[in-house]
Amino acid sequence: MSNECKAQNILAMRSNAALLDAFAHRSARLLAHVAKMLRRKEWNECLVEFKRVSNAHASYLLVRDFQATVASMQDGSNERRVMNELQKCMALWMIERDMGDFCEDRYLNAEQISWVRENVSIMLKKLRPIAVPLVDAMDYNDFRLKSAIGRKDGNVYEALFATCLESPLNLESTSGEGFNITGVSRL
Q: What separation in angstroms does the CA of 21 have from each of 16, 26, 174, 175, 177?
């Protein structure tokens, strides 16, 4: 395992190998750090670092297993292509979210950090057109999604308006304070 990311360009930064290596590096580095801490500190003084290591290792396992599952899917299938883009987006977003862990020992440099951020935007742009079909493929009902929009029955505007009327902000009259929708549902 290298002490710095090998990605030399934006495309290499979103390769499966580069992403998995980044998560493996972070997990191993944090574990080594905690092992050193335990030599000089009490167990209870290391609990916060244990949590960081646990989260880092769980993230590594998630990325590793997601990549392995996608690799086991039928070559050339639309499902594999979509799931591959989804797993890359997830991994890049997780790196962006936990950027400090990846930069703390300079595993990622400033240019690679900018590539991560740009790649998140690229992947979101690719996934945006299929976001609704992805959720629909899971066959979640509207109640579980807590969604007034994206309804299977097509009554989007009616549901959105009903949701607004039920909002605690709209249960009291705001006469004289601006727009008032109290009582509109009885029209």
A: 8, 9, 56, 59, 56
Task: Check: pTM over 0.85? Answer yes or no.
Answer: no
* Burial category of 173 from C-beta neighbours within 10 Å (exposed 0-12, middle 13-18, buried 19 and up): exposed
Report d(CA 27, CA 105) in Å as an integer.
12
DSSP 15-73: SHHHHHHHHHHHHHHHHHHHHHHHHHS-GGGGHHHHHHHHHHHHHHHHHHHHHHHHHTS
**pLDDT, tens only, 82-120:** 999 999 999 999 999 999 999 999 999 999 999 999 999
Using left for φ > 0, alpha for ψ between -120 and 50, and beta otherwise, residue 6 falls in alpha
